[in-house]
From TrEMBL:
Family: Belongs to the amino acid/polyamine transporter 2 family.
Annotated compartments: Membrane
Coiled-coil segments: none
Protein name: Putative sodium-coupled neutral amino acid transporter 11
Domain of life: Eukaryota
UniProt KW keywords: Amino-acid transport, Membrane, Transmembrane, Transmembrane helix, Transport
InterPro entries per record: AA_transpt_TM (IPR013057)
Transmembrane segments: 20-40, 61-84, 90-108, 120-141
Amino acid sequence: MTSYDRTLENYCMSDDWANVARILFSTTIMLTYPIECFVVREVLENAIWDGKPPETKSHHIMITVAIVATCFIFSTFTDCLGIVLELNGVLAAVPLAFILPALCYLKLESGRLLEWRKAPAFLLAVFGFAVAIIGTFLAMVRVIDGVTCSHGKEMDYCLAPHIQNKTTSILLSLMNTTTQTTLKP
């Protein structure tokens, strides 16, 4: 059994150490986000303005607000970290690991595109595209089926009635055994 994005949800909400871990995890995410924002801003400026963006404070603020607003809008679509990580894997990691290196090799290597010595790179790119397409499709199917998230639902073993029922049933079975033992001659 895997936990995907529910690792901290496996602990009860009343567990103090799990709550400390939740706070530390949230703090880590909040402190990491500005670093990612710098990278996106730099890439956008290089792509749109060829590395020579206007050097005004209003331009800098406008780009930053656009990045943060876009992230906020996308983040409101789901509260599941698992689906975000899954889509990040198939849409970012797979192209970086399989597709882009193979396509760069095919582009930079001299000769025709379909040569035997280029076959491994071509197959690697095809494999990468297949994994990205199938992975995206399966992630969307999981979202549509609602399998991905428990939406903060407390685990059964954390609920007080479940614990009381288990304790009560154990006590009743012990009392029943004791009563049967004492009544027999």
